Amino acid sequence: HKTILMLEHRIPFRFSRLSPSCDDPFYPNRIISSMDECGVFLCTNGEVQVTLEKEIHRIRRGDMYIYMPSLPIRLLYKSEDAEGLLVVLDVDFMLPVVQRVANAENLLHVRRYPFFSLTEENFGYIRSMLEKLWERIYEEDKDRKGFLQQRLQVELIKSMAQTITYEVLSIYFSKLPIQPMVQTKKDFIFHQFLLSLFRHFRQEREVAFYAELQHLSPRYFSSIIKEKSGNIAFQWIVQMVITEAKLLLETSDLSIKEISVQLNFPTQSFFGKYFKQYTGISPKEFRENVLKER
Fold first, then answer.
1. What digits encode the pLDDT tens for the residues 124-136?
2. SS3 sequence, the chain?
3. pTM (2 d.p.)
């Protein structure tokens, strides 16, 4: 396993390799997703098992999943010979790329059904592209070039990542009855809402804030989000806040008070009531339940 560190402040993604000798970030029972990142994982050998919304998925050689933000994915098991390639991208980089070729319904379909299998030909093709991306990043990381050359190399790496994204989406949609469609103005509003939500949900929980960013009334704005996604804007906001709260309660050492501050709640008590209203249990009970299950 090796993750490129030197370039992390210059490219909007990171690249990891899963191998029999690597432990982090692929140890069992760990949540391997995050709120504001997405990407792709290609299994090149062995088997990996994960849960997505309580459903178990077995990923074997030639299988791929599209890593989506704000959906906790938990690693259950990896075989001793498991190998794979993982590219994790910032939402600010990924969503505008996807937005050019897919409408809201397409995006939500990928979100709900992220796992698929490749033909042997497509497997070899995508694996080769990912390996070339790895090599390009590694070579750039080793070399010490001038400023202009570095900028060109970074843009080249970003372009390669975009190309891989389009190749993966092309294969994904070719295997399904649904096809990418040109987006409408309402699709654009929904995409922009997702971007602004990922950027601001820790500070802003009012629909009016997100509507104002697009110069729309809260009622009309929320009706568009409902039409395109099935949920009103407020439900999306709550889902993001609760998901982040659960991730922090499970994966961090922050106190409940510190988590409430990080999520911009006025008091720990207010955070507790908000969390219980939408989950049925208190933050303390949730954390205790997680510890019992380990």
1. 999 999 999 988 8
2. CCCCCCCCCCCCEEEEEECCCCCCCCCCCCECCCCCEEEEEEEEECEEEEEECCEEEEEECCEEEEECCCCCEEEEEECCCCEEEEEEEEHHHHHHHHHCCCCHHHHHHHHHCCEEECCHHHHHHHHHHHHHHHHHHHHHHHCCCCHHHHHHHHHHHHHHHHHHHHHHHHHHHHCCCCCCCCCCHHHHHHHHHHHHHHHHCCCCCCHHHHHHHCCCCHHHHHHHHHHHHCCCHHHHHHHHHHHHHHHHHHHCCCCHHHHHHHCCCCCHHHHHHHHHHHHCCCHHHHHHHHHHHC
3. 0.77
